[in-house]
Amino acid sequence: MSRESAYRLRSRCGAEGFAAAWDRVLTPPGSGRIRAPRPDFRKVTNEALLRRLETGLVQPVIYQGKMTNMRRKADNFALFRLLRRGAVIARLAGPEGWDQ
What is the mean pLDDT of each run of 10 residues along the chain (100 residues)? Predict the structure, then answer.
């Protein structure tokens, strides 16, 4: 299945079970955080991208057909998106500016 097909199925009416299973698989063990399905699509805010940049992505480790572990992976997409928006530079500069 392509990425686009998976996202289309996730957002389809009546596919709440698929979206819930998707969220459950990608939730780190022991975090207790399962995202509720959102009925609307929103653009990703700078705060959400910064959070993804700080926490990274969760990637399941598959060995011999079974999920054996979860690992965090850097979210380069969030970094590049923030750089395009200029949000990272503004946050790094802070209220004092660069001359500190």
Answer: 84 86 72 55 75 86 90 87 75 60
29 closest CA partner among 73, 82, 72, 74 = 72
The domain limits of the chain are: 1-36, 44-93
Q: Are 49 and 81 in contact (CB under 8 A)?
A: yes
How far apart, in whole angstroms, are the C-alpha atoms of residue 33 and residue 65? 25
Nearest Cα to 71, choosing from 52, 57, 51? 57
For residue 88, the tally of other CB atoms under 10 A from its CB is 19
- How many Cβ atoms from other residues are within 10 Å of residue 78's Cβ? 22
